[in-house]
């Protein structure tokens, strides 16, 4: 039997594992279009060569639903592309992944569960990240719809002892790939960018912001059958964090 090689991107690895387990493919809106297996964008607008290369002290752990991991519009995989220490788990109400419990108890990490403070008792809530601690920040993100995220929060007792990081975003969401009933709701990549900034990982935060904007442009241009435009402001901002093929072939004096 051939050994399957999974991506270091934990979300991509989780998707591949789920595909191996599934008896039939998950068909989301637009899933019939030929897509790059790595970046999930329609082939003509592939994003792979725009993956940024940055360092970060923080780690990110994504808790996902079974369907979310297959959605082409999911932004959790963008985070895993940017943050090298990335983890992803499928949530289950009846079963707990032992690897997740081991991660939460790993002494190198200080986990923060990212969730709106208005739904939590005040004593657990913080709006800041301790960047001077010997422990590295580990941001736990519930990568699901708002309704699903509230369910995960209520029915996951292993999160009960974690501090709640409640974000105070200064701008409304730029996410245009799915509809939300509340414009102040940020998508997962935007949330992660704010967390990284709070933790002092400003380069990773800026790279993720730019990567998210370029992803949104590629995704929407492909969906609207528009030609790919790699000269946009978003691409210029992201280019600072990328080693493009043209750059690799050039000489350095």
UniProtKB/TrEMBL annotation:
InterPro entries assigned: DTW (IPR005636), DTWD2/TAPT (IPR039262)
Region (Disordered): 1-29
Domain DTW: 32-224
Annotated EC: 2.5.1.25
Compositional bias ranges of the Basic and acidic residues kind: 13-23
Coiled-coil region(s): none
PANTHER family found in the cross-reference section: TRNA-URIDINE AMINOCARBOXYPROPYLTRANSFERASE (PTHR21392:SF1), TRNA-URIDINE AMINOCARBOXYPROPYLTRANSFERASE 2 (PTHR21392)
Protein name, as recorded: tRNA-uridine aminocarboxypropyltransferase
